[in-house]
Amino acid sequence: MRLFLLNNLKFLDGGGKGFHQIRSLSSSNSVLLSTNDDGNRGIRRLILNNPKKRNALSLNMLQELNKQFDTMEKQCIHPIQQQQPKSNHQSTTDDSKTLLRAIVISSNSEKIFSSGHDLKELKLNNDPKYHQLIFDECTRLMLRLRSIPVPVICQVDGLAAAAGCQLVASCDIVLATERSQFSTPGASVGLFCSTPGIAVARTVNRRWASYMLLTGRAINANEAFISGLVTCVSPTFETMQTQTESILESIITKPASVIALGKQFMYKQMEMNNLADAYSQGSRIMVDNLSMKDCQEGIDAFLQKRQPNWTHSNE
Amino acid sequence: MRLFLLNNLKFLDGGGKGFHQIRSLSSSNSVLLSTNDDGNRGIRRLILNNPKKRNALSLNMLQELNKQFDTMEKQCIHPIQQQQPKSNHQSTTDDSKTLLRAIVISSNSEKIFSSGHDLKELKLNNDPKYHQLIFDECTRLMLRLRSIPVPVICQVDGLAAAAGCQLVASCDIVLATERSQFSTPGASVGLFCSTPGIAVARTVNRRWASYMLLTGRAINANEAFISGLVTCVSPTFETMQTQTESILESIITKPASVIALGKQFMYKQMEMNNLADAYSQGSRIMVDNLSMKDCQEGIDAFLQKRQPNWTHSNE
Amino acid sequence: MRLFLLNNLKFLDGGGKGFHQIRSLSSSNSVLLSTNDDGNRGIRRLILNNPKKRNALSLNMLQELNKQFDTMEKQCIHPIQQQQPKSNHQSTTDDSKTLLRAIVISSNSEKIFSSGHDLKELKLNNDPKYHQLIFDECTRLMLRLRSIPVPVICQVDGLAAAAGCQLVASCDIVLATERSQFSTPGASVGLFCSTPGIAVARTVNRRWASYMLLTGRAINANEAFISGLVTCVSPTFETMQTQTESILESIITKPASVIALGKQFMYKQMEMNNLADAYSQGSRIMVDNLSMKDCQEGIDAFLQKRQPNWTHSNE
Question: Which one of B232, B252, B272 terminates a domain?
Fold first, then answer.
């Protein structure tokens, strides 16, 4: 049903290939579907595909997600590190492939986005080392949602609970349907949502974070909007899809290297307390950005009222 | 009138005992009423009870509040400090008493929650040492609202001004009636709300904080909701009471030791700038949490679809 | 048209002098208009006045703004630095002039508040040193919006984009009309809004910041209200003007030295991670504040139910 909807929207449209592609993936046993949009636009869609297990972030699911990110990172243009001379920069991008421009994470269920860690799994193997392994895998995923140099968009439809809510709060851009809910109810089973709380408290206002974490009660989409967890609430999945398409269009029409540079510094400065320090570093980033080919082209095109012709490179 | 309302709600219901208990306390001259709920559920209600002085946080009121917290801290289960071996842990809980599970702070007036520091008192004794004593007592209260290992719920009905607003912003969970107002108007009497601003700026969005502090103008309940100061606005005191009861139910059905561990780390990680560091510590907390008896019981009960049987201990 | 509106409101009213004053300024070629309110109330209005260039923050505009702030800083009472003995304090205020109490920044256009940096200018001179100069001038402005010891109010009517949005997010109090929009679209021309993002991410919830910065899409006034960028949305410029007048009234009826002390510490504590440290410093500020003449007068007046008689000094 959901896959059919996806097919009818521009995002995965392209002579029905998108539909069949997902369907065939769907017939596999993978807990995670992964597909490119048909238009060769560099948009990768990851679909949590284990509705019977409420799309739990099991070790398997986390590893599959991280595997996808391993691959996707190689398909991105990465920002040049400051202090590193340009000439020494080795692009990790294989030019023969489409450059990755954006990632969309959603679920293959209209009831559940993800229920978080797999409690059964945590119980079956009671070795603390095994537990640590799971949380390390989870942390690795959350940190790279931030470090991967393309925007990560999350489409929530249904319930996002515990580490599922952490995943949502860790994406760059979050949309949700009206029927969606968000919760961090771990304490109800004796496992406080301490790590989900790290992502949630950095996203929503602090009173919402303490309310959610201490009571475990779910908030609805409107409360998620008020609290800052979500910036767009759509009445249906279809309208969310249309909204997402507009957002993707905004992203892919910009130069990849500039988005990469921008995302990296954005999260860096957010962690800086001192305003003057942040501006000092930010100004240098701006000056460097201005020397990039795509910036010179972008401003030229703007002044000449024409479409820019991006290289998407760090030159 | 208010006390009568309280009596008619489940929270203090129990054959009318709650009503009489508060009434008898009320007939005392104490500026602060303190009562347990009748159901032996470990819920302590503190009621600011000096409406003639607009429930000012006088030195007396602050000391009474801190005295209550001294007692309540002994009735809580405290989280085991990391690095401290479990066997050495001395529980401070006297097992013969009901374990404290939650604190509810409200006022005995539908017009004023609290007007903040007592200006008359600050004026009568002009010794800076005396002033310092008052602010130290106030800080002690604000810090322990955060450190006490049970959730503190604030019910605002009426005006919360200056240090009264600071008290609100320092609680874990804040509800308010529609008629409530919030302000930090100290500069109007020449005393800028510098310490209230510390709590307010950590709770609401920064533009709301600077607006409130620099103009002293009151915001209404809806603005408090938008700004993040309050997460639930109720049309009447009765509906706020019902909402509070649901929240309390959510809290007391969870294991006390897990809430204690969770609240402690929640505020700790909120003060950490570096995301990777926060996750590193958070993962260890999760692994420790998983080894607790109540966590194992909680997950078992969940998987077996039965009610959990908590020990509420740190074992 | 806009100037006519301003004239018809109390803010610039005074026998039409305000109107003519601005008009005559307007006939000058200055990109920035500056006017005092007629009532000698110490309110300075700065009007971005280059609508043909979309009120761009060109080097010229930035320098004009900084020149105004150089002058205005000398018209303020400054807080006494802690650790600095009172007797050594040299007031920078020339007593013969009206003490500055508040600054209002607006634009002379109902379509555009400011479009941010002047792209043409950035392109014409491609010397990185020149670019650095522009960003340094911009940073200097943003930092002093925070450091100048009087409240800075921003009235947005129309689009605030890129560094224009940064200017908005850097003011203490922000009002906007319903038709206003806010964006950080730099990446569309290849120049990521890295420095605007510093101000925006410290003002709005983090998900709004990443959404705005990575997509460049504009948010409307309602979204700006939800996100925390704006605390008051008015249907028309006239109602925004009335709202501003109320806010100004709230400010100028308070003692200047207390506002100065308060604003300085407010931003200082916002940058402090540790709550106990913030309270420790805050308590000392409160004790110092209580020893000020205007505080003693303010509390006296309050207790005696009369109007206070401020000295506006640091005594």
Answer: B252
- Number of domains into which chain C is organized: 2
A220: in domain: yes
User: What CATH number corresponds to the domain at position B11?
Assistant: 3.90.226.10
Q: In this structure, are A191 and A260 located in the same domain?
A: no
- Cα separation, A43 vs C38, whole angstroms: 58
Residue A298 belongs to a domain with what CATH number? Answer: 1.10.12
C26 touches A at CB < 8 Å:
no
Q: Does C282 fall in a domain?
A: yes
Residues 154-173 in B contacting A (C-alpha not used; CB under 8 Å): 172-173
> What SS3 state is found at A80?
coil
Task: Compute the residue count for chain C.
Answer: 315
Cβ(A159)–Cβ(A111) below 8 Å: yes
> What is the rounded CA–CA span in Å between residue C179 and residue B246?
41
Question: Sign of the C-alpha dihedral, residues C131, C137, C138, C142?
Answer: positive
What pLDDT sits at residue C110?
84
> Per the CB < 8 Å rule, is A135 touching B283?
yes
Do C142 and C179 belong to one domain? yes
Give yes or no for A188 touching C (CB within 8 A): no
Residues A99 and A187 in one domain: yes
Tens digits of residue pLDDT in A9-38: 334 333 333 333 443 454 457 999 999 976
Same-domain status, B97 and B130: yes
> B214 is in which domain, residue-wise?
2-252
Domain's final residue, options C232, C252, C272: C252
B193 within 8 A of B217, measured Cβ to Cβ: no
Residue A311 belongs to some domain of the structure: no
| CB-closest option in A195, A209, A273 to B273 | A273
A229 and A146 in a single domain? The answer is: yes
C-alpha distance from A268 to closest chain C C-alpha (Å): 10
pLDDT digits (tens, 9 = 90+) for B85-127: 444 344 444 445 789 999 999 999 889 999 999 999 999 999 9
Residues C204-245 pLDDT 10s: 999 999 999 999 999 999 999 999 999 999 999 999 999 999
pLDDT in tens, A59-68: 999 999 999 9
Question: Rounded to 5 degrees, what are φ and ψ at C24?
Answer: -70, -40
Q: Identify whether residues C198 and C298 lie together within a single domain.
A: no
Looking at CA atoms only, how far is residue B149 from chain A in angstroms?
A: 11
ipTM of the modeled complex = 0.91
How many angstroms away from the CA of A125 is the closest CA of chain C? Answer: 36
Do residues C43 and C113 share a domain?
yes
CA distance linking residue A157 with residue A109, whole number of Å: 8
Mean pLDDT of A78-84: 67
Give per-residue pLDDT as tens, B188-206.
999 999 999 999 999 999 9
Question: What is the DSSP pairing of strand B102-107 with strand B152-156?
Answer: parallel
Edge-to-edge strand order for the sheet containing C159-161? C112-114, C159-161, C181-183, C219-220
| Assigned domain for C314 exists | no
Local structure of C106: helix, strand or coil = strand
pLDDT (tens, 9 = 90+) of chain B, 315 residues, equals 344 444 333 333 333 333 334 434 544 579 999 999 767 899 999 999 999 999 999 999 999 999 999 999 999 999 986 444 444 344 444 445 789 999 999 999 889 999 999 999 999 999 999 999 999 999 999 999 999 999 999 999 999 999 999 999 999 999 999 999 999 999 999 999 999 999 999 999 999 999 999 999 999 999 999 999 999 999 999 999 999 999 999 999 999 999 999 999 999 999 999 999 999 999 999 999 999 999 999 999 999 999 999 999 998
Q: Are residues C247 and C290 in the same domain?
A: no
What counts of helices (H) and strands (E) characterise chain C? 13, 10
